[in-house]
Write a structure and sequence with these properties.
Distance between the termini: 24 Å
Strand order of the largest sheet: 6-7-8-9-10-5-12
Order of helices and strands: EEHEHEEHHEHHHEEEHHEEHEEEEE
Number of domains: 2
Structural class: alpha+beta
Strand content: 25-35%
Number of strands: 16
Number of helices: 10
Shape: globular
């Protein structure tokens, strides 16, 4: 058994014998998560008996663009459509400028990274992946498109998108927004402009990028809520990016270092039965596990869960 800390989260990794024996229960200090190594070799029944929940390591958020914006937004709630209108009115009312540019210059990227740095620094466990990948982004500049909003010369909202022609997908790489612009819903307006660009380019799908399948640690449940309400569905990232394959099988012991509630996107009926990406709309039966310290009557109702096969709640001490 190995015990390690990941951004204040204490994880004990155990083998099957240690899982059967409950070895982590004899540690001097409690752990937050018990993770089973080699879980791919166990069937679902054995994992359930041992109390472990298998999930893809990463999920990618995808949506079919539809032929028009009207068809796309018809799938959204009335409140979500209202927020999109608010974002557009904010841009107009504040005299802001929305810019869509194919290709990525070093100057634009460095301006975006200043905005992104500030956003990440405000997150409890934020990871500055964009700055770490600066050189890679510039190397792929011809495949990228920026959708940004400016107050005069100052960028207040920025998003970088990857044109994946082989997959007929426009995929979000990174986005950031200043506090005042975020409260004005400008990010939604920028995303809608990106979807318009994707339609005009002849693409079929949009993606809001990859996230860890546990929302409550590095990424927060609010991001899950935003993406589901914006009409996007999570699929295992390995369908689009095989290098992101793999699973975690976790037993969550406590939420002391996680958000309450936390959300876990699990395999459902898809474990070991994934097909390669195709031009057909993804249709997968993933499940959602809500982790909470209280069985609140409205907890599940506050989430948009219609794209999941099942939603269940696990109450932890």
């Amino acid at each position: 058994m190995e015990v390690a800390e990941q951004d204040r989260l204490i994880i004990a990794t155990v083998n099957r014998d240690e899982a059967e024996d409950g070895a982590w229960q004899r540690l001097a200090e409690p752990v937050d998560i018990v993770r089973l190594a080699g879980s791919e070799d166990l069937n679902d029944a054995d994992l359930e008996r041992l109390g472990f929940v298998p999930r893809p390591c990463w999920v990618n958020w995808v949506a079919r663009l539809s032929a028009t914006e009207e068809e796309f937004t018809a799938r959204l709630s009335q409140n979500e459509r209202r927020k999109i209108r608010m974002g557009r009115r904010f841009i107009e009312g504040q005299g802001l400028t929305l810019s869509v540019k194919v290709g990525l210059t070093e100057e634009l990227l460095d301006e975006f990274l200043i905005l992104y740095d500030a956003q990440i620094s405000a997150m409890p466990h934020g990871k500055n992946f964009a700055r770490d990948r600066r050189d890679r982004l510039l190397a792929a500049a011809a495949e990228l498109v920026s959708v940004c909003i400016y107050a005069g010369p100052r960028m207040v909202t920025g998003s970088l998108w990857w044109i994946r022609r082989a997959q007929s997908t426009l995929q979000l790489r990174f986005s950031a927004s200043a506090d005042d612009a975020r409260s004005g819903q400008s990010l939604r307006a920028a995303y809608m402009a990106a979807l318009d660009f994707a339609r005009d380019t002849g693409l079929t799908f949009a993606s809001l990028g990859n996230d860890p399948s546990l929302f409550g640690h590095v990424v927060q449940p609010g991001l899950f809520v935003f993406k589901t309400r914006f009409g996007f569905t999570p699929i295992p990232s390995q369908i689009l990016d095989p290098h992101l394959a793999g699973e975690f099988a976790d037993r969550v012991e406590t939420l002391r270092s996680l958000a309450d509630p936390s959300l876990m996107t699990t395999w459902g009926r898809c474990r070991g039965a994934l097909s390669p990406w195709s031009s057909d709309a993804p249709s997968l039966d993933l499940d959602l596990l809500v982790l909470s310290t209280a069985q609140s009557p409205g907890l599940v109702d506050s989430l948009r869960t219609d794209s999941f096969r099942e939603t269940s709640v696990l109450v932890l001490p």
